[in-house]
């Protein structure tokens, strides 16, 4: 039986594992390695930070969910990929190093949150990118009685996309931030939360970005609407702010600019996974992301696929693109293993919903201008809030097996 090894249990890894088993059945032995025993629904972590959910409400138990679909689960942290010997080294929970071989590999362990680039992070940093971060931020917000809050993104250590994969030039560009959707979402949620607690009038909010302005991956017109919303809310905005240090009461940029911040809510810097430095070098580009073709196959090692944030092709780093790339990769694999399957065309699009659950509305974004297209929708409505709620329930109900996602992309 063909051995498929999947590295990572987030959107990309789960979609790859479930799709491969669905398409190939007994033709493939699927094993998934993840560094936590659960898969967190990360689009719900901002909701955890304001007390709408607890983190454990949004976690899928992989040791139960995966075997139920005929997929083996291994708890471990990937240390290295040897693409020449078809072998992966990982560390088990007891620290022991193990090796596992494969016929085909899916690299879906995502990017790394490079908090070590930010001096003072452990003492003063807050985020919503991981369950423990979101829980800690909620505890901090519950104690907050007014002052200054800064919300923004760290630098994306992406490299220069060289060598570039075999796909159209406009599918991937160098970006200042890996994804500023959570920043926009928090800019909606935090004021609503502070109003609910009766302390919004005691609080000043600043939005910052490492780019020339926020959300440069969507249309200029949509960014203009967002900036108008910020102005109406009385927020300060600071662009070209490349965060370097967090201190008590303020944050500092690489060029010495400061922003007052009793609480700093940050999308940390993104960079390549730690395993990259120990792995076969020519699997990756100069930023540590896997170089592939449009079917997500490595251009150097055709039995290696890369999906989601670990792939050079996915810019910005979005769950929507993670699911799409994984589905395409496993459709391609099915054909290679003798099961005729239609392979979807990769059509990159910025798709997300910035939710405001405390006020019952959300802004849905569908935008292709980053890739040279002309779609530029940014629509606020109560219906979009309901869509976000349904998407959350859908993910949890299916244990992350989003087979219908491509038909529900407007969510």
From TrEMBL:
It comes from the Archaea. This is FAD/NAD(P)-binding domain-containing protein. GO terms for molecular function: oxidoreductase activity. PANTHER family: FAD-DEPENDENT PYRIDINE NUCLEOTIDE-DISULPHIDE OXIDOREDUCTASE, PTHR43755. SUPFAM superfamilies: FAD/NAD(P)-binding domain. InterPro entries: FAD/NAD-bd_sf, FAD/NAD-binding_dom, SQRD. It comes from Ferroplasma acidarmanus Fer1. Residues 3-311 form the FAD/NAD(P)-binding domain.
């Amino acid at each position: 039986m063909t051995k498929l090894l999947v590295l990572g249990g987030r959107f990309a890894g789960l979609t790859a594992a479930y799709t491969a088993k669905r398409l190939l059945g007994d033709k493939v032995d699927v094993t998934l390695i993840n560094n936590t025993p659960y898969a967190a629904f990360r689009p719900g972590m901002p909701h955890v930070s304001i007390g709408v959910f607890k983190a454990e409400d949004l976690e899928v138990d992989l040791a139960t969910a995966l075997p139920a679909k005929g997929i083996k689960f291994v708890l471990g942290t990937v240390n290295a990929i040897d693409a020449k010997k078809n072998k992966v080294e990982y560390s088990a929970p007891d620290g022991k190093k193990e090796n596992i071989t494969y016929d085909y590999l899916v690299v879906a362990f995502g990017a790394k949150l490079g908090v070590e680039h930010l001096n003072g992070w452990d003492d003063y940093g807050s985020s919503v990118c991981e369950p423990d971060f979101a829980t800690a931020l909620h505890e901090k917000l519950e104690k907050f009685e007014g002052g200054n809050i800064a919300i923004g993104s760290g630098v994306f250590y992406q490299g220069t996309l060289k060598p570039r994969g075999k796909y159209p030039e406009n599918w991937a560009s160098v970006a200042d931030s890996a994804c500023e959707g959570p920043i926009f979402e928090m800019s909606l949620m935090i004021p609503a939360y502070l109003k609910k607690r009766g302390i919004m009038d005691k609080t000043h909010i600043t939005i910052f970005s490492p780019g020339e302005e926020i959300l440069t991956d969507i249309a200029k017109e949509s960014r203009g609407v967002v900036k108008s919303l910020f102005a109406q809310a009385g927020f300060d905005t600071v662009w070209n702010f490349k965060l370097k240090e967090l201190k008590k009461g303020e944050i500092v940029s690489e060029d010495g600019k400061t922003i007052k911040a009793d609480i700093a809510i940050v999308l940390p810097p993104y960079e390549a996974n730690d395993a990259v430095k120990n792995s076969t070098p020519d699997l990756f580009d100069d930023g540590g992301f896997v170089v592939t073709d449009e079917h997500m196959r490595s251009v150097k090692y055709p039995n290696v696929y890369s999906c989601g944030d670990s792939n050079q092709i996915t810019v910005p780093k979005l769950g929507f693109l993670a699911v799409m790339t994984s589905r395409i990769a496993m459709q391609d694999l099915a054909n290679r293993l003798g099961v005729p399957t239609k392979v979807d065309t990769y059509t990159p699009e910025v798709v997300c919903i910035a939710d405001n659950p405390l006020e019952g509305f959300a802004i849905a974004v569908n935008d292709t201008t980053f890739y040279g297209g002309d779609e530029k929708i940014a629509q606020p409505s109560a219906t979009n809030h309901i869509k976000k709620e349904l998407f959350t329930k859908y993910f949890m109900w299916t244990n992350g097996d989003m087979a219908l996602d491509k038909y529900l992309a407007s969510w």
